[in-house]
What does this fold into?
Amino acid sequence: MITPSRRPPLAILVPAGLGVALVVVPIMGLLQRAPWSSLVERLASDTVVEAIRVSLVVSIVAAVLSLLLGLPLAWILARHDGRMAGIVRAAVLVPMVLPPVVGGTALLFALGRRGLIGQWLDAWFGVTLPFSTAGAIVAATFVALPFFVTTVEAALRQAGTELEEAAAVAGAEPVTRLLTVTIPASRDALLAGVALAWARALGEFGATITFAGNLAGRTRTLPLEIFLALESDPASAVAVSVLLLGVSLAVLLALRGRWFSR
Amino acid sequence: MTLRIDGTLRRGDLTLELELELPLGITAITGPNGAGKSSILRLVAGLEALDEGRLTLDDAVLDDRAAGIFLPAERRDVSMTFQQPRLFPHLTVLQNIAYPLRRKGHTAAEAARLAQPFAERVGAGHLLDLRPHRLSGGQAQRTAIAAAMAARASTILLDEPLGAIDETGTTDIRRLLLDLDAPRVIWVTHDPADAESADHHITLGLP
Amino acid sequence: MNRRTPLPLVAGAALSLVVALWIATTTSDATILVFAPSSFAPVEAELDAGLAAAGIGPVEWVLAGSQSLVAQLVDGAPADALITADLTTFDAARAADVTWPDEQSIASNVLVLAVAPGNPGNVGELRALEDADLVIGSCAIEVPCGRLANAATTALGVTTTPDTEETSARALTAKLIAGEIDAALVYRSDARAAGLEVVPVDGLDAFVNEYRGSGNTRGMEVLRWLGSGAGERILLDSGLGP
It folds into this structure.
């Protein structure tokens, strides 16, 4: 008989430990370099406060857009298994594996002033997305949407069909089923999806700087502020990094309590 | 008021050739696992469509692929309970029972008032404000039965309603099921005693 | 023997790791590692050929924004020579003690007023940068091209309100090429490499960023070659100044 050992074998423990170290050591490095004594005043400086404002607007709107666009999408993907659904699913997930800079370039060629669709937006409505807060929101939504869709699709797939059948027999039309049963019953997953999308949007850098440029008060989000401050004021860059690290950890802890620990 | 199924259902490697009449009163359906007992209920409910043939209620065609007719579940005059009770996790017991009433256009307050007597009839009167995850299997199935009754459909479909109830005191529920005030009840069961108490009895063999 | 063991998987992973490390570390000791501004990118191949003909090298280039080059050196990146795109950054490198005793002036770069392909904004003079109806780009004040542009516009009495402050000269040029920006002050070398249309502006060439380099013995071989003769000619052809 094999007695279960509490300690995993060394061959597993060593690479696992290295994996943890790979993530934890850089965080410790950041914290150790942080200007703790002047942290608050650095974060309260005008440029940082402005970047916080832009970041909050961009990330919150991007999270809400991810919810509005991603929920119907996730529902369709969860209820269909055909070849089309597979293609759509792969397409939606592309931003997750694509380098954000490539995403930003693609957005520029699609929605920029000379872009595929952008030239018509400009000609017909006078709308130009690059260098505007709206452009930063588009870039952030582009990278955040897949995080919402994957999280919510899995939940809808797991929870949905049986309950939707019960609701149908009880007389609920498809949209009513979605609104009164499917969505409320998967509330936890929706919250988790929104939180993940928000955190990803908050940390977005590459697509934003490529597509939306960098202007204080309009498109300069916290990650762009960090990048720029690294050139001139590294201590402030670290201070803002610590702020973002704290927010990310808070999101993860909140998700763990609500979602992962089930 | 005769419900007729005359057609074929294919699900994976299972092919079900059906030719049966489901008259008014209580019809018990028995048969071994895999014979397609649940599939018959799902066909009647509108959760499943025949691959060939048709399902009719008197002169009305509910399902006929060749003619391009399929009346979806929410438009059929049926209610149903499942082997594993399907309660909505975000609603209380009373709200679950009231759900079909809400879909008929009653306000939340009205639906709750109308639902309450059904909760009491199934012996769930003391559970009204609980959420499903706090219920035992038996309590959950009682709630599901109450919801099926509250819908006041002319056909009630019961898919092994006593299977999930592991408590010994199922006598009252059994009596309740034999006394449902729906014109037609179709009751899938494993228990020969239930079948004997029903008005009609269909035994399925393995296809 | 139909039990699958993960042994082939583990062995395969270990083998590819070893191969990858071997490839990653195979730079011969003879290689001269030169950290240089991105504006060298268009002529990298020509420089390599010229250096080979002169019997110097082989040279491995690390091309990036000047500040990021200095930051990499401060963080301990190995190098034989460093070239920065302006003196401010070079001074910062010297202060951070990542330069060598020998220094060499390599080249210079000036700004030009470049416009989007086809000049959709109809830009004809420097004052166009004040036009709120045009989409104007600039380099952020934190990077060398931004400092130079700021000095020039201030001296020439033009107040710009850019729509974007790009974090590198090349990012700015890229947005001009894409037609997203109507006009911007960019390096002459970048504009020439991209084939951008340029609007002549009197007095703009008075503002010069000096490219300065420093290196160890082997690095200085490269820097001296760049500062004279064949190397200098290649750089001048690319739009840099003497």
Notes: The radius of gyration of chain C is 22 Å. DSSP finds nine helices and nine strands in chain C. The mean pLDDT of chain C is 87.
